[in-house]
Design a protein that fits this description.
Strands 13, 14, 15, 16, 17, 18, 19 and 20 form an 8-stranded mixed sheet that branches. Strands 2-3-8-5-7-6 form a 6-stranded mixed β-barrel. Strands 12-21-11-22 form a 4-stranded antiparallel sheet. The chain is an alpha+beta fold. The chain contains 28 helices and 22 strands. Helix 6 packs across helix 14, helix 6 crosses helix 15 and helix 12 packs parallel to helix 24. Strand 6 and strand 7 form a beta hairpin.
Length: about 900
């Protein structure tokens, strides 16, 4: 009951304040009158009795305030007073307010954007039921990739997963009866949708019961986005027959709108049973146990009570069984688990996003240091006001609360502006297509979590820079300040705001160093030696399966295409590589290589695991790959001659010691085929720009079973805008229905360079923001130093000090802080930039241009920030100043 009575009383004080104040006034007047009556009866005159009673009672305002505080009624009122006073003070200093709000808006906006990406790529699971128990498997060197037969054993023999599904990518030509076009999708196991536990938006999904062997389930499920854009929400699409690479498939369903596939940032157009993949790519992967690219990824829900560690141990047991049962086709490698959606890219994405979050955190820390320094200087400028308030009876706690209210108000306004900007940016980024035609989609949808993080960052930031002046206010001596007029002291001690500025400059130097390292590395990447020459090279991608070619007709058509393009004026050389050339779409696949004398071709006897590419005669000349020894392939190197290979320098040195010793030597493939080395070419990059040097072999494509998907490399100095139509016309003369995609090699490398470019742009933006923060911080300290020493500088100039001496006295301290902070930041930036070498090719912090650029950039920032304070210091008129003082 006491609690209810207290609560009722406090509510009454909030909503019935006038009546409560009137009652309090009446009660106080009654107390004074009763005391005056007592004094009057003791013999004092009435007027004197009333005066004495009021003196004894004390100040009525103080008593009323104490009563209101005891009743809890002043909390809201004092908060409103603090808020109004804060608004009034900030309105009086528009320059300070704008700088503070913009500073925080940039910092909080940057953190909100980075958190939005982290939320979409890492924190937010796939939009499927029980996503927290859905795990993908990683296996071996090419994480995620494995063969279809191995997947079947993994699915049937594991005891940890409640079903294990698999998928890989399928790129097809889709003919709906009008306007045939290219489409990309998933070739998935029959239990794909059952394992995901989702329901179709329209029609039905395919299931394991629909599969009855190779090419037995010609069904198609459309993604909601593709159904909406290509079929215009036509519900009559169910049962319709479309053609994928000339083969008929029946549309049976549409996936739900919220489901965008099981690779988080790659959205498929369709889903098809993997047992029919042979129809779309002409290759039977269902029986190829030694294949490393049959399955892109497997995933499933862990059974109740099973931990990821137990599941990994279970998968290792299955792997040991496969190694023992199929020693020539299966090499035991380590299994690991990752949350489905990013399994095969998990470590790279997490590392990049973690680094980006750290940089964004540094920006926020620099902003807080900047504002903390400005708030400390602002509190010093208001020292006389604070002293007067203390002298008039205000408590130090109340003054601190008022200053903290200003800080939190600025942080909330800045946080709101930053959040609004981040929402606009994230919405635009969600529609961004970095590679036209590629099915890339990042699910950036600002939600309550981003709002909550932004609010938390705003409040924490306001508290952090708002408490900087606490020590300054607590040690304030009102008598000394009122007497001297200021707390400004300039001595040899390092003050808190100077320390904060040094930290801020160091953070800025780290960001500037990292951004320059990234820019320099990217510039080198664009002109680096990849083992092939991208300039003056066109790539022509064809898929003969889409035009109905198969068997020996594929090789014959490929030879005709090469001959036809070589007749185009200006074309120097044309070569063919099956699937994709090095670096493009992770083209390199690894193979097991054995020495020719090895009879037991088990994993323990593997001599090397190089990348393998199947190429035609003319490829090395067309690609600009230098031949170091021996010879390249000729058109006589067909199925009628023994198997030949061209290897790179790394492979030759690893197996045979040197380049000359490798020529004419033999090695063996997994199936026992003896291959003779015809030539050795220079090393290159095959899967990633940042990879260590890897061995590679190039086999003669016309000695092997034909691949329907291939790329023609065309070497020509002609303008690509003129050469592309000529190539397209030549191929249409051969077959008007042949799908052709033509681009420059440099354009295709955009995919490879995309992570480096994103890192460079991100670091560049962070570096620019850090530079802006440093300018405002150095400017604030320099301006404060000049304003507090105007009298001293005037006396120096009156006594004959030179301009250089005045500048040294006024700005020497800010420049010392700039030098110390920049040096510390440069050293930290050099250490931090080593991480960039895993993202940006040839990024090194030991580049003299990078070091010189950082020194120059920080010097220019210092000069820019101190220009106005320097002009003010030099424009002092000693006579006017001393007369005013």
């Amino acid at each position: 009951m006491k609690l209810l009575d207290s609560l009722r009383f406090r509510i009454a004080t909030l909503f019935q304040r006038s009546r409560m104040n009137a009652e309090m006034e009446e009660e106080l007047r009654s107390h004074i009158q009763h005391r005056a009556d007592d004094l009057e009866r003791s013999g004092l005159p009435r007027a004197e009795a009333e005066r004495r009673a009021r003196v004894e009672f004390g100040g009525s305002l103080r008593v009323k305030q104490e009563c209101q505080e005891a009743a809890g009624g002043t909390l809201v009122e004092s908060f409103v007073q603090d808020l109004r006073f804060a608004l009034r003070m900030l309105r009086k200093s528009p320059g300070f307010t704008v700088v503070a709000v913009v500073t925080l808006a940039m910092a909080i906006g940057a953190n909100a954007v980075v958190f939005g990406f982290m939320d979409a790529l890492i924190l937010r699971p796939l939009n499927v039921p029980q996503a927290d128990t859905l795990y993908g498997t990683e296996y071996g060197l090419d994480t995620g990739f494995q063969s279809y037969p191995n997947y079947l054993d993994l699915r049937d023999r594991n005891r940890s997963f409640d079903g294990l599904a698999a998928f890989t990518f399928a790129f097809v030509g889709m003919d709906t009866g009008e306007n045939p076009s290219r489409a990309s999708g998933y070739a998935a196991s029959g239990n794909y949708f059952d394992v995901l536990r989702i329901q179709p938006y329209l029609g039905r999904f395919f299931h394991g019961s629909d599969e009855h062997g190779r090419n037995s389930a010609a069904y198609l499920v459309l993604s909601y986005v593709y159904w909406h854009s290509r079929f215009e929400d036509d519900r009559g699409v169910l049962g319709r027959v479309v053609r994928l690479n000339t083969h008929p498939f029946t549309i049976i369903g549409v996936a739900p709108p919220e489901f965008r596939g099981t690779v988080l940032f790659i959205s498929p157009d369709f889903f098809m049973p993997i047992v029919n993949q042979e129809q779309v790519n002409g290759e039977n992967i269902l029986d190829a146990r030694g294949s490393t690219h049959g399955i892109f990824e497997t995933f499933g829900h862990l059974k109740p009570g099973v931990t990821p560690t137990q599941a990994v141990a279970d998968l290792q047991d299955v792997g040991a069984y496969l190694e023992k049962t199929y020693p020539k086709e299966f090499a035991q490698k380590s299994f690991s688990l990752g949350h489905a959606g990013l399994t095969s890219f998990d470590r790279a994405v997490r590392a990049f996003m973690t680094g980006l979050m750290l940089l964004a955190g540094l920006i926020l820390l620099a902003a807080c240091a900047n504002l903390g320094s400005l708030f400390a200087a602002r509190a010093a400028d208001r020292s006389r006001e604070v002293a007067l308030r203390l002298a008039l009876g205000a408590s130090r706690l109340r003054i601190l609360r008022q200053l903290l209210t200003e800080a939190v108000l600025i942080s909330l306004v800045g946080g709101t502006v930053g959040l609004l900007g981040s929402i606009v940016l994230l919405q635009r980024m969600s529609m961004w297509q970095p590679f036209p035609g590629a099915p890339i989609h990042v699910p950036l949808h600002p939600d309550a979590r981003i709002y909550a993080v932004s609010l938390a960052l705003a409040l924490v930031s306001g508290f952090l820079f708002g408490i900087v002046p606490v020590r300054q206010v607590l040690r304030t001596d009102p008598y000394q300040i009122v007497k001297s007029g200021s707390t400004g002291r300039v001595g040899q001690r390092i003050t808190l705001r100077e320390l904060l500025l040094a930290v801020q400059i160091a953070i800025c130097a780290v960001l500037v160093t990292s951004s320059m390292v990234a820019v320099r590395g990217l510039a080198r990447s664009l002109h680096g030696n990849f083992g092939f020459e991208t300039r003056n090279a066109m790539l022509t991608f064809t898929n003969l399966a889409m035009a109905g070619y198969s068997g020996d007709a594929v090789a014959a058509m490929q030879k005709r295409m090469i001959d036809a393009i070589e007749t185009i004026p200006g074309v120097k050389r044309v070569g063919l590589v099956n699937n994709y050339p090095p670096l493009i779409y992770a083209a390199g696949s690894r193979v097991n290589i054995f020495k020719q004398e090895t009879r037991d071709r088990t994993p323990s006897n593997i001599a090397s695991i190089p990348y393998r590419f199947d190429v035609s005669p003319g490829y090395f000349e067309a690609a600009g790959t230098g031949l170091l020894a021996g010879r390249a392939f000729t058109w006589h190197d067909d199925k009628n001659v023994p198997a030949l290979a061209v290897v790179n320098r790394e492979f030759a040195g690893k197996l045979f010691g040197s380049v000359p010793d490798a020529i004419g030597r033999y090695f063996a493939l997994q199936d026992g085929t003896r291959v003779q080395i015809a030539g050795v070419v220079e090393d290159g990059k095959y899967l990633s720009l940042t990879e260590d040097q890897q061995p590679a072999i190039f086999l003669a494509s016309f000695q092997l079973p034909p691949s329907q998907s291939s790329c023609l490399v065309v070497r020509s100095p002609r303008d690509p805008q003129q050469l592309a139509p000529a190539i397209r016309n030549k191929l249409r003369e051969l077959d008007a229905g042949l799908p052709v995609d033509i681009s420059t090699w440099n354009t295709m490398l955009d995919v490879v360079l995309f992570p480096a470019r994103v890192a460079t742009v991100s670091l560049g933006v962070m570096g620019a923001m850090g530079a802006m923060l440093s300018i405002t911080g150095i400017f604030g300290l320099a301006a404060y130093s000049v304003s507090k020493r105007l009298r001293e500088l005037g006396i120096r100039m009156a006594l004959g000090a030179q301009r250089k001496e005045v500048l040294h006295a006024a700005l020497g301290r800010p420049f010392k802080l700039l030098a110390c902070g920049s040096t510390a930041g440069l050293l930290l930036g050099i250490l931090a930039s080593r991480v960039l070498s895993f993202i940006v090719y040839q990024a090194t912090p030991r580049d003299p241009l990078v070091l010189a650029g950082v020194v120059l950039a920080m010097s220019l920032l210092g000069l820019l920030a101190t220009w106005i304070p320097a002009q003010r210091a030099l424009s002092i008129d000693p006579m006017i100043l001393l007369r005013e003082q």
